[in-house]
Amino acid sequence: MLIAVLSDIHGNLEALEAVVADLDKYSPDRVICLGDMIGYGPDPARVIEFIRQRGFHCLVGNHEAGFRQEKYRNWMNFQVIENNQQTEQLLSDENIKYLAELPHNIIIDNMLFVHGFPPKSFLTYLRNCSDKVIRQLFEIHPYQFYFVGHTHTLSLVCGDHETVERGWLECGEQRLDCMKKYIINCGSVGQPRDRDNRAKYIMFDSISCLLEVIAVEYDFEKTIQKIERLGFPAIYGSRLR
After folding, report:
1. Domains of the chain and CATH, by start
2. By 3-state DSSP, what share of the chain in percent is helix, strand and coil, each rounded to 5?
3. Of 6, 57, 67, 102, which sits 20 to 30 A from 147 (CA to CA)?
4. Which residues contact 159 (CB under 8 A, 6 or more apart)?
């Protein structure tokens, strides 16, 4: 099965459109969005509508969870809380209902998809999890491949209930060891924080265990201008350069 994995689009329509135009060349069997479709960016409603029209499978991220319960919104820093409130004003009741019904994870065969950390956290960052926690995950849960977002960076964790190896993911292809377990941190479509402003996404062939990190150019200046016109914090635009 060929699966495209997108994460942390953050209301960036230009980045999303560029990524989807690229992934369409591969004709994946499924497209999974790992959450945080909204927040920071200027087009939350159009991003949601685009994703729904394409029939992509989506999860809840911490930004979507901010609409569910006040405690999740309060988990964010004050600037993000304010932006979450501004974002809410740009969404229809139907969009907010859609966000409220998103699942915590998606399971396909031996793969589990979640925003933060398996099996269902949308708040926990992979980088904050100890080797012990990861070993326990690999020992307790039966899945071989875990796909996460949330950090806006690319990384790879592999191992078993005894050993854990961590590394960065680079653009391009690599074949994973089908005898090991992996956590794949999928970077960000719309708000990358890895000193490379291209939109990133993952293509994974579950039969051959071939993993590809793909980076796509897009018109980020157009997105920045929209952010400025809305009066969103300038940092949400400057991060895109």
Report:
1. 2-238 (3.60.21.10)
2. 35, 25, 40
3. 67
4. 134, 135, 138, 165, 180, 181
